[in-house]
TrEMBL record:
GO terms for cellular component: cytoplasm. Transmembrane segments: none annotated. Pfam families: LIX1 (PF14954). GO terms for biological process: autophagosome maturation. This is AN34A protein. The gene is Ankrd34a_0. Coiled coil: none annotated. Belongs to the LIX1 family. InterPro entries: Autophagy-related_EPG5, LIX1.
Amino acid sequence: VNVVEALQEFWQMKQSRGADLKNGALVVYEMVPSNSPPYVCYVTLPGGSCFGSFQFCPTKAEARRSAAKIALMNSVFNEHPSRRITDEFIEKSVSEALASFNGNREEADNPNTGIGAFRFMLESNKGKSMLEFQELMTVFQLLHWNGSLKAMRERQCSRQEVLAHYSHRALDDDIRHQMALDWVSREQSVPGVLSRELAATERELDEARLAGKELRFHKEKKDILLLAAGQLGNMHSSNC
């Protein structure tokens, strides 16, 4: 079986059966530039999830197949009813989150707490699968990582207002550019912070990729930090 073709056919079939794919059924591959093995390839699925080659790949074609293989396995697994966001799924996920953070049940009912916001996000996406939910999850992970959620709280924005605003926004170049500018200003305030964050992010991305995990958050972080580094480089050259 040609796993690259099988993955594309899987998503085209989902679209033909009425799946709500905002950007169509196209599966997007991205090779990491390299002149020698091991080659690394990432694949982004129509729902926004991202996976990468998880084996030692001596050729670019093998890297593409490896990425397609792990993405296809996850795409098929995602069709299982247990991956659908239902009332039972929400209760189980919220209970697990409360246990992880030693939270109490009142927090889950308060939209201004982290757990309450998580519940609100799940309830807003009832009926979707976890892979379809991935894009929104990644946006909020990035907003938290970047300090944007904290800044919005300081401006008296409620979590529900923030959620309502970002729930309908795709992860686009505008969001990436704004976050990159935040990192440019951090680097100007604390020289070296950008390279440290980038090194840590690259480690996390490699570890998650080799473990066959979903990568969108780690990869977006890396892309934003590289964008910030490029903007700093442009500023330095224009000052010379």
